[in-house]
Amino acid sequence: MPKKLSINSLSSEIATLNELLSSARQSGDIVGEMQLEYRITELSNKLETLKEKILTDNSASVALFFGGQPVLGSKGIAAEFAGVALEQFQNLIAKIFANSEVGDLGERGRIPFKANSELMVTGLARGSFGFVLDEMSEQVQLESSELSHVIDKAALLLRDSAAQDDAVFESLLEELEPRVLIALRDFFSNLDSSKATIRIVEKELDFTLDGPSIQRAKIRAEATSIDEAVTEIEGVLVGFLPEHRKFELADNAGKLFYGSATKEAVEQFVKATESVLGKKCQVKVTIKTVSPLNRPPREVVRLMEFLKFGE
């Protein structure tokens, strides 16, 4: 379970007990005062221990709270809606995970590393009806797991897709992969058609998307198109920043191409036996044409791999 939920719950309970303690002192209830002080101390110690665990618990965890028409308070949720929503969220996570591992995905086919991105429902969240999804691993994570970083990305993607400012959503598009966009579109479409709302709690993130926010995100996702083409370019490698995975290349006609590079391309560059900057090379790139809502299309270039260094 996201530790933020437990921390918030304990903090709220301690605040309530402090109010009761104040009333007990004013009324002279000595026994009640002693009992409340003991309970507050007990919960405060538990809270401090929980905060310390946050520093060492690096596994992925997220809580999804649903509201609106499919939900009956904290009593229940429509089974069909819940099943579809959880499947769509998992699908979004799987595609973001695969994209982070292998780069751009094909238009169709199996999603690479899908098994590595699977989350499990480990509990129900209090309040509005919600589900706790956790990464299940037999090994202790010494550092934040890759899946944990992916959930960070997914949560931010969902939040920023619904932002009031169009520019916030458009800033995501350069890094957005077509199949991730489709998964995003499906998720928001289901929420909107079901007249549902969602609250997402993950690490330090805690935000709610209401009906208008979800509809705004749905419209943006549906109105945005991302087309990709793979091509080979011969030219001179003008610049390359391995730590930032950025490159600049001028083709034989003098046209400049600038964009990001895959992990594989970075490894090829680092392993080159001599400096290849300022020299000719042949590369394979994907050119992504992004057409956002009410904006002119723009191209995003990604260097997939070096096919040849030098002449």
TrEMBL record:
Keywords: Coiled coil
Top-level taxon of origin: Bacteria
Coiled coil spans: 7-53
Protein name: Uncharacterized protein
Organism of derivation: Vreelandella malpeensis
Lineage, highest ranks first: Bacteria, Pseudomonadati, Pseudomonadota, Gammaproteobacteria, Oceanospirillales
